[in-house]
Amino acid sequence: MFDASIDAFVYAMEKEGFNDILVMVTETGWPTSGTDGASIDNAFTYNENIVRRALNNVGTPKRPGVGLDIFLFDMFDENGKSGEEFERHFGIFGDNGIKAYDIRFN
Question: Could you tell me the Gene Ontology terms of the biological process aspect for this record (predicted)?
């Protein structure tokens, strides 16, 4: 789905005459808890794969080899946040400052 949403945006912009638009993903992540499919292992796998893609300039099917700036959501869990339970659990670190999983950024 990551490729489909980004490529859909690129196709739409090109259709409107805006070619060579740089794409930046400003918020992506996976919850560690609070809903089906949310777990530390799934959050680690998703975020680790996103980081690898960014570091290796993988791009998307529409733009292979064209790197993306990607910002992970979120650095810390937000236990005081309102809304659905999973919204509180996107942090790489818990609200206690302890790493939820050992993601690498190099």
Answer: carbohydrate metabolic process; defense response
CA distance 87 to 68: 25
Taking the alpha carbons at both ends of the chain, their separation in whole angstroms is 24
φ/ψ of residue 24, rounded to 5? -130, 130
* pLDDT at res. 54: 93
Q: What is the DSSP string of 19-63?
A: -S---EEEEE---SSSSTT--HHHHHHHHHHHHHHHHTT-B-SSS
Q: Which residue matches tokens 């733009």?
A: 63
The predicted model scores a pTM of 0.89
Q: Which residues are catalytic?
A: 27
The token pair that represents 82 in the structure block: 């309102």
The two structure tokens encoding residue 104: 């690498």
- Confidence (pLDDT) at 80: 92
What whole-number distance in Å separates Cα of residue 91 and Cα of residue 106? 19
